[in-house]
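Example record for the data management plan.
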Amino acid sequence: MKVSTIALLLLLASAQITAGERGASELKVRTSSGRTVAFNEAKDLAVKFWLQQLVLSALYRDVVQESSAGEWGQAQQAANSVYCQYPFNSQLALPERQALTFDEILLPVPPEGAPSYAYLKHGSKYLRVAKFDPWVFERLKIEAELSSAKEPKAQRGLF
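Corresponding structural encoding:
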């Protein structure tokens, strides 16, 4: 074996070990009927992907604000919501924007229209992001089975 092949194998092994240490994320989608929806692995990953894209679209527009435990608690009371607990110190970042470090993301989903904010929690620190891409929000609702639409109606924006 060449040295570069061995180095690549060692790098892949260490990446798998590191990924294993970080732990998995846990997704919960609550519907207005009060039930929590469970998805198969592929659907679970799709919902998590679109939730992260939603936060990235707000970060792109640079609308990141301080929030509070009270606002987080109020958002938890929404009839429909998408919540994901991530491994400690998860991050999303874009060039020339602040990096977002979080452990949890909570998106209250109103029956009509879009929510004002998505909330991020890191330990006892709370942030909220706003002005996310409407197309991404609609795609997330579809993937999370909070909408009966087959495709988003909004114009595709950033993504």
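Summary line stored alongside the record: Residues 23-143 form one domain.
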